[in-house]
Amino acid sequence: MRKNNKNDIGFFITLGFIVLVFSIGFMLSNPQPSKAKDNNVSYSIEVLKEDGNWLYKIFKNDILYIKQDYLPAVHGKQRFASKKDAKQVAQLVVQKLQRQKIPLITKEELITNKIAFQPL
């Protein structure tokens, strides 16, 4: 009878291992998306001058999502030099949002897009 217990334990360990391997294989062959894509999301941009300074607002489905008063990625609180600069940066942010990327703007992107700012 002791032999049967050892065989039973070995059988259940083997069975458990086989189930585990098949489960992992199934999960790898049918990956779940990490984020649900929502095709009904729309973004719009508003560039305006407040208190003599340019800024932009990004709306997601007509709800204020981002308000950017200052240039991103630069030292201190630097304002946008022009309406064009504010609009260009807003468009870069929206492009990243549409690709479901973090809308982080780098100093290199400001330079590439000829956005005016004061270097350190």
Automatic annotation (TrEMBL):
Pfam families: DUF4907 (PF16250). This is DUF4907 domain-containing protein. Keywords: Membrane, Transmembrane, Transmembrane helix. InterPro entries: DUF4907 (IPR032593). It comes from the Bacteria. The chain crosses the membrane at residues 9-28.
